[in-house]
Design goal:
Number of helices: 2
Distance between the termini: 87 Å
Oligomer: single chain
Number of strands: 0
Shape: rod-shaped
């Protein structure tokens, strides 16, 4: 059990962490050694955020339109019953 919990020096731990981070970003298609690749990835994330916010606002607008249409239909029904048409 002692062998499983070997202690690593700060340098070896840092190297292992760096390799792990590079591997994860490589899987995502980002070369962390190229600033333009990292910046493109960041722009993609920003674009996704903008799209999510736009979708949220669009959904809210849709709910408002549906609520207004429902109220208009209810009002038209009330007016037609009261008016005797």
């Amino acid at each position: 059990m002692q062998d499983l919990h070997r202690h690593c020096t700060d340098d070896t731990c840092q190297e292992a962490a760096d390799r792990a981070v590079k591997k994860v970003f490589a899987i995502l298609g980002v070369d962390v050694d190229k600033p333009e690749s990292v910046e493109e990835f960041r722009e993609d994330l920003r674009f996704g955020k903008r799209m999510r916010k736009a979708a949220d606002h669009g959904f809210l607008a849709l709910m408002g339109v549906l609520a207004a249409a429902t109220m208009a239909a209810v009002w038209a029904g009330i007016v037609s019953k009261v008016g005797g048409h």
